[in-house]
Design brief:
By secondary structure, this protein is mainly alpha-helical. It contains eleven helices and no strands.
Length: about 260
């Protein structure tokens, strides 16, 4: 109640939840959510410019809420597309990451410490050997494609590709291992995405596979499938030669889509 932007974020998520529960009123609820989101972001940006020990405990949960809002809103508005929402999420969170790192100890002592720690106990699922093999093969192919493209783009751009793929590999390990740590893609990779760089589009398609993990939640349902489809269409418009390189992502999206429908 001390931070209006955090209340706005909570109300925006609540409005989108209503949109998911009441399809006939989804347009009205979504408009309400966007109004709360816009108001919340204004206050959030002001808070980022003057961080205190107290405000960081409002900044951190709002950063999580804004991700949920961007993921959820894709399914309720034809004006929004998943790749633009992905860019919005990363651009908003660039400043947040610095704040969280500088205030990590304060956060670990506060009410959200459980979100910054790896889960204790619980059921550890044995990894699927065939899935591990297909993922390793796909990521190896991604590295090889980047190396081939490097002769056309130069060492600096290749370095961005390589860093993005290494972060992607780490992200797969974190998701599978449920370590509780957070992985961020290099911000230069977002810049290349906005420029419709083909190799960057391919790498982000692979990041889209990670978002398939949230399809069982109302706020993440279908986002990964839409993201992979959106980025794949953009890549194939540039050159159909990229078609074989998105096959693994398409198979993963098709499998997730069946689960969503069922």
């Amino acid at each position: 109640m001390q931070y209006e932007f955090l209340a706005d974020g909570i109300l925006a998520v609540a409005a989108l939840h209503l949109a998911s529960l009441e399809p006939l009123q989804s347009s009205e609820h979504t408009k309400t959510a966007m109004l709360y989101q816009d108001s919340g972001i204004r206050g959030f940006k002001e808070a980022l410019s003057n961080v205190s020990d107290d405000s960081v405990n409002a900044i951190f949960p709002f950063s999580i809420l804004i991700m949920i809002i961007n993921l959820a809103s894709t399914g309720f508005s034809s004006d929004l597309n998943p790749s633009k929402n992905l860019v919005s999420i990363f651009e908003l969170l660039r400043g947040v990451v610095t704040v969280i790192k500088s205030s990590e100890q304060r956060l670990k002592e506060g009410p959200f410490k459980v979100l910054l720690e790896p889960p204790i106990g619980g059921i550890q699922l044995a990894p699927d050997p065939s899935e591990q093999e297909s993922r390793a093969e796909a990521l190896s192919s991604l590295h090889e494609r980047a190396r081939i493209i490097s002769k056309y783009v130069g060492p600096q751009t290749y370095g961005i590709y390589s860093a993005g793929i290494h972060s992607l590999e780490t992200a797969f390990e974190e998701v599978i291992g449920c370590s509780g740590r957070h992985v961020m893609a290099p911000h230069q990779l977002i810049t290349l995405l906005k420029q419709s760089d083909p190799m960057a589009l391919l790498i982000w398609i692979y990041y889209g596979i990670l978002t398939l993990e949230i399809h069982e939640h109302w706020w993440g349902r279908g986002f990964g499938v839409l993201l992979i489809r959106d980025l794949s269409e953009a890549l194939l418009k540039i050159d159909q030669e990229w078609d074989p390189h998105i096959e693994w992502a398409r198979l993963k999206a098709a499998k997730a889509q069946k689960l969503i429908i069922n």
